[in-house]
Design goal:
Strand order of the largest sheet: 1-11-8-7-5-6
Oligomer: single chain
CATH class of the largest domain: Alpha Beta
Number of domains: 2
Order of helices and strands: EHEHEHEHHHEHEHEEEEHEH
Shape: globular
Number of helices: 10
Radius of gyration: 19 Å
CATH topology of the largest domain: Rossmann fold
Distance between the termini: 44 Å
Length: 293
């Protein structure tokens, strides 16, 4: 069994990004600039946004977080997004989810300029991803693709089972793994909460990507020997054992499944770190106008 070490790969990629940003500054260009909007005081969102800000600083980006009370109106938020769309000094914009119930996520996502949509949620970016065209790809799926690529895991012709159909992870993941690309070229089965007997599919899978949001959902009896296991789960439980007061658990029963897997990603230390690196790479691409002029 080999660990898919997200920390190691993320550190290497951040060094590459930092080097490129230093060259940009040296040549007189400004550094990439990422703005995050956080509405309300969701603890997990606050932690994630703080991590993004810290990582931006590490690679030399400019970044800022705009914080609003949960009671702001939808119109106010949309107006702020439109203002940022017009600001040429800002390359990337993310609006942290979840949002309060009175604000439409769909309206927010569609209001963000697709050229600054470094989260890869805008319909234009999703459509271009489906057609295998250059675009911003959702950070978590793109992070997983980078992990597979850096570990040189063969995917062509393999059976990949994706568990979970969210628009943020499962759905785009299934599309990326099926595209005529490397990594990619898999035969993909997309399972979800309404799929009967998921075990029937996972036992036949060469690659299993689990993003269903249930602690230890994938157990050892559900995977075949030599499978590649990617755990996207991020399940928080209160704990007296940690300084933060909580522990993270994946969607995979790691201790049991690792005895059968050829490769497996841990939680924490796996996909989560790759997600932030993917966001940094998207922001760098936005600053360089690699996909859109």
């Amino acid at each position: 069994m080999e660990l898919l070490d997200g920390k190691k790969i993320a550190t290497a990629i951040k060094l590459e990004i930092a080097s490129e940003v230093a060259q940009m500054r040296a040549s007189g260009m400004r550094a990439p600039n990422l703005v995050a909007i956080l509405v309300g005081n969701d603890g997990a969102s606050e932690t994630y946004v703080n991590s993004k800000e810290k990582n931006c600083k590490e690679v030399g980006f400019d970044s800022s977080v705009i914080r609003y009370d949960a009671k702001i109106t939808e119109d106010f938020l949309l107006a702020k997004i439109k203002e940022i769309n017009q600001d040429d000094s800002i390359d990337g914009l993310i609006v942290q989810l979840p949002l309060p119930a009175h604000i439409s996520v769909a309206k927010v996502v569609e209001t963000i300029d697709h050229k600054k949509d470094v989260d890869g949620f805008h319909p234009i970016n999703i459509g271009r991803m489906n057609k295998n065209l250059p675009c911003f790809i959702s950070a978590t799926p793109n992070g997983i693709m980078m992990l597979l690529d850096r570990y040189k895991i063969a995917t062509a012709g393999k059976h990949c089972v994706v568990i979970g159909r969210s628009q943020i992870v499962g759905s785009p993941m299934s599309i990326l793994m099926s595209l005529n690309a490397e990594p990619g070229n898999c035969t993909v089965t997309l399972c979800h909460s309404k799929t009967p007997d998921i075990k029937k599919y996972t036992l036949d899978a060469d690659i299993v990507i689990v993003a269903i949001g249930k602690k230890n959902f994938l157990t050892a009896d559900m995977v075949k020997n030599g499978a590649v296991i990617i755990d996207v789960g991020m399940n928080r439980e209160n704990s007296n054992e940690t300084k933060s007061g909580y522990k993270l658990f994946g969607d995979v029963d790691f201790e049991q499944v690792k005895t059968k897997a050829a490769y497996i990603s841990p939680v924490p230390g796996g996909v989560g770190l790759m997600t932030i690196v993917s966001l940094l790479k998207n922001t760098l691409s936005a600053a360089k106008k690699e996909y859109y002029q």
